Amino acid sequence: MKNPFQKNPSSNKSEGKFRIFIWTLFDFANTSYSIVVVTFLYAVYFKQTVVGGEAIGDFYWSIGTSISMLITALISPVLGAIADYSAGKKRFLLFFTLACIISTSLLYFINKGDIFLGLTLFILANVGFEAGLVFYDSFLPEITAPKNYGRVSGYGFAMGYLGSLTTLALVYPFIEMNMIKETFPLSALVFFVFAIPLFIFIKDNRTKIAKKEPFIKIGIKRVFNTITHLKNYKNLSLFLLAFFFYIEGVNTIIFFSGNYASTTLHFTMSELIVFFLIVQTTAIIGSLVFGLLADSFGQKNSLVLSLIIWIITILFAFASSDTNSFVIQHLAKVFNTDAGQTSRMCFYIVGLFAGSVMGATQSTSRSLMSRLTPFDRKTEFFGFYSLFGKSSAILGPLVFGYVSYITGEQRFAILTICVFFVVGLGILSFVKDESAGEINPAEQK
């Protein structure tokens, strides 16, 4: 006789799918901030309006991004360790989410010449966004089995880019009316509304503990303990080092793609919207496809493929940005267009390829990190994942901004990004991936 109190397996499966959907919905929410503030509207608004279109605007922007990433890099491992100890991820996620939303809303009050205040609010918003990801990412091992990490992580990024498309549709009427400042609180509202379900429906596995010393002291102790024993996690350490370099390139592209298109290629706001629509659409497809590839052929193999595509894309972007280059001159003759128009059309192709691997690279990295990380220290190690990812974003934007400033051309700065991808790819080749059959599960350390 069937036990009336036994849970129905199909109901458990439905509950699991619901939790995954709610988790991915937060990706949908937070990319409203990413697309409006970091990548597109505020990035362009800051340089063109706040700084008045001066070349030094790139350098100011790089300083803002680097400071925010440095702060996040320093606090993430400690916060992760505290969250593991107290099992209170949702509290930290809520705090940083609200910090991002409030700071983003206040960007509405930034006008021409408000460089310091504009950068300060951006730094606060970006710290909230990036630090929150430490706790959001660490929920992944709790909502699905290891064999599904790749696809579920891919679902999250695909949902995120769907959120970007939705946000672009919402802000487009404001852009048409040249009401750029109004888009900042609107993106904050989207973030707030769609982030709510996670805090209601996803349970935080909290346990009551005897608190014998301050959490901050406990967090620092655990971090130093992890650093001391990091030699026991050689494979994970190699992956984090590779991640440090190749994510440098991804972060720099995210921070400067809008500025690059508007400054170097003279894209209008309408052309920028088309460009980002291409990027976000292909990013949805890329995240889903690479998520399936990661689970079928291994996370590392999928990462290697994405980095090769990145390198080719950057080299093509460099070649097609010069209207006097052989590539542009030849294509202009073939399609009977002027060099400037041909260069802008080529950048749409760059956006297509960049979008196909932008979410895929980040998604596959997150799923490989989940596979290599000890379960009982998942948030702490995701703190180190954030440390390597965010600290890498200090150097990349600074190098890009500085090269752009001293040469007066962003085109030469783009080549620095390619170096980071090549170095990251080289180190990644030494990482062993259990999902690809390179090591036994017992050898993950």
Kindly describe this structure.
It contains 16 helices and no strands. With 445 residues, it is an all-alpha fold. It has one domain: Up-down Bundle (Growth Hormone, Chain: A). It is globular, with a radius of gyration of 22 Å.
Quick structural overview:
The chain is mainly α and 445 residues long.
What attributes does this structure have?
445 residues, mainly alpha, Growth Hormone, Chain: A, 16 helices, 79% helix, disordered C terminus
What's the pLDDT, averaged over the residues?
83
Alpha-beta classification = mainly alpha
- Main beta sheet strand tally, sense and closure: none
In terms of quaternary structure, the protein is single chain
Could you say what the CATH architecture is?
Up-down Bundle
What top-tier CATH class fits best?
Mainly Alpha
What is the H level of CATH, i.e. the homologous superfamily?
MFS general substrate transporter like domains
Distance between the termini: 46 Å
- DSSP strand tally: 0
Helix content: over 70%
Order of helices and strands: HHHHHHHHHHHHHHHH
Unreliable spans are 1-11, 440-445
Rg, alpha carbons: 22 Å
Kindly report the CATH topology: Growth Hormone, Chain: A
Work out the count of structural domains: 1
The outline comes out as globular
Output the number of helix runs: 16
Percentage of residues in DSSP E strands: under 5%
List the helices and strands and how they pair.
Blueprint: H1 9-39, H2 41-50, H3 56-86, H4 89-106, H5 115-137, H6 140-143, H7 149-176, H8 183-201, H9 215-228, H10 234-263, H11 269-297, H12 299-320, H13 326-335, H14 339-372, H15 378-407, H16 410-428
Helix pairs in contact: 1-2, 1-5, 1-7, 1-8, 2-10, 3-5, 3-9, 3-15, 4-5, 4-8, 5-15, 7-8, 7-11, 7-14, 10-14, 10-15, 10-16, 11-12, 11-14, 12-14, 12-16, 13-14, 15-16
